[in-house]
């Protein structure tokens, strides 16, 4: 089967596996006190041009998001974000759980990108003190859940609205590498220079076995995060195995190389499918996700031909989400396009 369900279904890049094998040789200090973890912290700080940033490794994106938000939002606080964001619909209440009960407030967005005016209107609604949750954080997703990206200027405008009303800004960067490749800007320009206080810097979807880095550009959040990471079960005793993955991921730009391959495959797929009769792109394709509305017969034909993808829940339409990855082959992309053409012709 050619599997376009998610970039989570892929294996790991050989360089990541080699790095983990090297880290397995000999003893090393536990709980992140090893030299390799220290090296990775320095690498991330250098990458983001943020020498004062606090860097913490965890194993999953859900943990990264939930723990980051937990140090930004009190139990009686509110987190504003896109109504279809991962934190709102795909994390089983983890942000609410780790924060002790904070409320997630979903906002509408065109192609996954929040509008500063919509955010401002939501934050400026009448608030009756203790009877309402207190606005505490804004969460942006980069790249967005709809496969688009936030330009630094758009992110900065949203952050200015949030900061102007006393909110912190979190960024879910599960596909951060794909966004940076598309934008052509520096990691610093896309994050703290645009007003981001905390980033969940993803790697799992882009070639590692399982590692994410929480980058706190606001160092006042660091102490609380350290305790919450331990309490949440993400202070690994053998942290060097997470660090080994992140070390290899960042070395010689592998993270950008992998993302560039995934983005190129998505662009090729989108271009090919857009030319098939009856197929309509639902969102601009700016990273590695392709959403297309198709006739039911075409979806069924692709499934019968052995292609894997998710049917996206859009009322009244047959919408498919197809995701490419660092190891997506051009041949698989071209075969899917050819199968779609054949099914549409039939």
Unreliable residue stretches: none
What is the radius of gyration? 20 Å
Largest sheet: 7 strands, mixed
- How many domains? 2
Task: Report the CATH topology name of the largest domain.
Answer: Aspartate Aminotransferase, domain 2
What best-fitting shape do the alpha-carbon axes yield? Answer: globular
Name the CATH architecture of the largest domain. Answer: 3-Layer(aba) Sandwich
Measured as a percent range, the helix fraction is 40-55%
Could you give the order of the helices and strands? EHHEHEHHEHEHEHHEEHHHEEHEEEH
Mean pLDDT: 97
Provide the CATH superfamily of the largest domain.
Type I PLP-dependent aspartate aminotransferase-like (Major domain)
Question: What's the number of extended β-strand segments?
Answer: 13
β content, as a range?
15-25%
Kindly report how far apart the N and C termini lie: 22 Å
Query: Which structural class should the secondary elements be placed in?
Result: alpha/beta
Spatial order of the strands forming the largest sheet: 2-8-7-6-5-3-4
Q: What would CATH call the class of the largest domain?
A: Alpha Beta
Query: How many helix segments?
Result: 14
């Amino acid at each position: 089967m050619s599997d376009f369900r998610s970039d989570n279904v892929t294996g790991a890049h050989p360089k990541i596996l080699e790095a983990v094998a090297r880290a397995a040789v000999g003893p090393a200090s536990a709980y992140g006190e090893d030299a390799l973890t220290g090296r990775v912290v320095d690498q991330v700080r250098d990458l983001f041009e943020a020498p004062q940033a606090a860097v913490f490794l965890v194993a999953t994106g859900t943990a990264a998001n939930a723990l980051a938000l937990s140090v930004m939002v009190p139990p009686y606080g509110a987190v504003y974000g896109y109504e279809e964001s991962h934190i709102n619909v795909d994390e089983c209440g983890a942000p609410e759980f780790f924060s002790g009960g904070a409320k997630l407030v979903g906002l509408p967005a065109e192609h996954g990108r929040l509008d500063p005016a919509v955010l401002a209107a939501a934050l400026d609604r009448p608030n009756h003190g203790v009877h309402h949750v207190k606005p505490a954080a804004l969460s942006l997703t980069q790249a967005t859940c709809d496969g688009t990206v936030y330009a630094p200027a758009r992110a900065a405008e949203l952050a200015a609205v949030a900061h102007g009303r006393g909110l912190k800004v979190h960024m879910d960067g599960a596909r951060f590498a794909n966004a940076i490749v598309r934008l052509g800007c520096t990691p610093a320009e896309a994050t703290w220079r645009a007003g981001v206080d905390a980033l969940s810097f993803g790697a799992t979807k882009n070639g590692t076995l399982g590692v994410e880095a929480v980058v706190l550009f606001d160092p006042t959040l660091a102490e609380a995060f350290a305790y919450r990471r331990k309490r949440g079960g993400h202070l690994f005793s053998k942290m060097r195995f997470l660090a080994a993955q992140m070390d290899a991921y960042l070395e010689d730009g592998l993270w950008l190389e992998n993302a560039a391959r995934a983005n190129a495959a998505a662009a090729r797929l989108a271009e090919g499918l857009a030319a098939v009769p009856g197929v309509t792109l639902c969102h601009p394709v700016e990273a590695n996700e392709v959403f297309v509305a198709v006739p039911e017969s075409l979806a069924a034909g692709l499934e019968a031909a052995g292609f894997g993808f998710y049917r996206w829940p859009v009322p009244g339409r047959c919408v498919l989400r197809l995701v490419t990855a660092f190891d997506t082959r051009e041949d698989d992309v071209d075969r899917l396009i050819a199968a779609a053409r054949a099914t549409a012709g039939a």
